[in-house]
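Dear Dr. K.,

Following up on our conversation at the group meeting, I've run the structure prediction for DUF1559 domain-containing protein from Blastopirellula marina. I'm pasting the input sequence below exactly as I used it, so you can double-check it against your construct before we proceed with anything downstream. Let me know if the numbering doesn't match what you have in your notebook.
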Amino acid sequence: MNRSLPRPISAHRGFTLVELLVVIAIIGILVGLTLPAVQMAREAARRAQCQNNLSNIGLALINFEGSKGTLPPAVDWADIDPTNAYATSHFTWLAKILPEMEQANLYENLDFSNLAESGGNFPSLKIQLELLECPSDPENGDSQATGGIGITNYAANEGWISHIQAQQWNAGSNTSADSNTTFSSRPLGFQTTTKPLDMSGPFLPGRSTKLAKIQDGISNTVLVAEVAAGGFIHPKAENASETEASQSNSGEPRFITSGKARSALIGYYGQTKSGIPNVTSPALSIPLPYNATGYKPTGATAELYAPVFQTYWAINTDWGGASSRHNVLQCVMGDRSVRSVNLTVDNTVWKQMCAMNDNTVIQKSN
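The predicted structure tokens came back this morning:
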């Protein structure tokens, strides 16, 4: 009689429900711990790419100045309609340095003898260059909202407020040395100085600057800084008596709902070459026939401006100033070095970093 041998009891058994839940919980915790690190690593890589973009732009500007003798102007003056004080449009400083950025073919396609918005130039104006985009900004690719015009995240430094004849104030007085300007008083934070004061940056419309003329030193003066594609609106000022929006950079900045983006190759300015450019004028909105329907996050007709910023506004407080999607603002100096600036830096310090001849040097902190 054959007896079957007893089946051996397996040493392995399945997970109980409790054990399975514990394993799932552990995996969830590990994922929760890992994801922020991955996101931080990705943002660090994007920030490094943005820094590299700025460094390349700085090198292109230095090479341009070396071959041409001056930096390019913020934008060339060209009157579309002499009877319209808000109708000037021509090529920006970025258009001029395209060969130095290995974009010679695009440069050759531009007709600099005509307006930037002329029919022959229009196809080239639609090109969106990756080297002019910050990879941390999710809004820089909405070309449909800007009527197809290519935009950029990098803006040249105009200084405090753009004046045709620079931004100078008389010694020992708050009176402007420029009789054309509507801003007769000095910027806040500079009221007590007894020395002549010039708060202009290296880039002004129709004006070319030699690096050798930057008295504060090229390593101490900002050439180009970041700007968010959609811009910012400033938080409510804590002090109602403040006369400059730039003096309140407290609070959480909000991204604007009606877009004011910087176009890359075409520049818009208010006023003709005999007047004062005013980048805050709503008359600078992009004209027909582009007929843009709104800029992300959308809400109104898109407005395109020359790729410049002004220090009248503190960092991350208003669309006209410098702004960044990083936790710091990155900017390239005149020697091609890239600095990271705290988003809450005192705006007097930021003005001094951007003014090229105010006789104040802000050293890089270690």
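Two things stood out to me. Residues 233-258, 270-301 have pLDDT under 50 and may be disordered. Helices lie at 17-68, 93-96, 104-108, 122-125, 347-354.

Best regards,
J.T.
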